[in-house]
Amino acid sequence: MTTIATHEAKTHLSKYLDRVQHGETIIITRGRKPMAKLVPFDAPPPGSIPKVGEMLDEPMDIPASAFAPMESGDLSEWGL
Question: Does domain 1-40 have CATH number 3.40.1620.10?
Fold first, then answer.
């Protein structure tokens, strides 16, 4: 594990990101106080997170009666 100051991190960020990409952990300090830890990102395995638009649950079944025209008394029950 490597420890570097914030100024060093700002100046050579690309270099340290390359090192992190290869598995190294880097501690960034302000003065002598540790402020952050730069670690490799563990991406979730492909397929574990649904893509936009994919269903999480089974589609629900809507009966055909739900699309039947309403009768005149039906709306009055709702106060419309």
Answer: yes
Task: Provide DSSP, 6-32.
Answer: HHHHHHTHHHHHHHHHTT--EEEEETT
Is 0.85 topped by the overall pTM? no
Taking alpha carbons only, the member of 1, 38, 36 closest to residue 18 is 38
Tens digit of each residue's pLDDT (9 = 90 or more) over 26-35: 999 999 999 9
* Residue 13: C-alpha distances to residues 9, 24, 28 (Å): 5, 14, 11
> How far is it, in rounded angstroms, from Cα 20 to Cα 38?
7
Strands (DSSP E) found in 1-48: 2-5, 26-30, 33-38
